[in-house]
């Protein structure tokens, strides 16, 4: 490719960006988008506390927990290798 992932990773890991955001996530989506898996990865990367076993929680509860955790925080979520929107 043209190095988009490499550039995104360098920016994501840059020390100044770490200072700008309370939490961040870098998620590879790939060709086959799966909402549940993408949510699970974001939740793990941003360290949402007390969410329990992700396998046992439905998607809407995952969205609610993630929203509540991120509300009021400065966060960065990078979705890489997205094929379709």
Automatic annotation (TrEMBL):
UniProt xrefs under Pfam families:
NB-ARC
Q: Which InterPro entries match?
A: NB-ARC, P-loop_NTPase
Domain (NB-ARC) ranges: 1-84
Q: Which GO MF terms are attached to this record?
A: ADP binding
Report the domain of life of the source organism.
Answer: Eukaryota
- Which named protein is this? NBS-containing resistance-like protein
User: Source organism lineage?
Assistant: Eukaryota, Viridiplantae, Streptophyta, Embryophyta, Tracheophyta
């Amino acid at each position: 490719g043209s190095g988009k992932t490499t550039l995104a990773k360098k920016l994501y890991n840059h020390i100044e960006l770490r200072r700008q955001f309370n939490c961040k996530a870098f998620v590879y989506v790939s060709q086959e988008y799966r909402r549940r898996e993408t949510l699970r990865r974001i939740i793990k990367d941003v360290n949402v506390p007390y969410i329990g076993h992700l396998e046992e929680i439905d998607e809407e509860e995952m969205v609610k927990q993630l929203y509540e955790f991120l509300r009021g925080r400065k966060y960065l979520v990078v979705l890489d290798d997205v094929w379709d929107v």
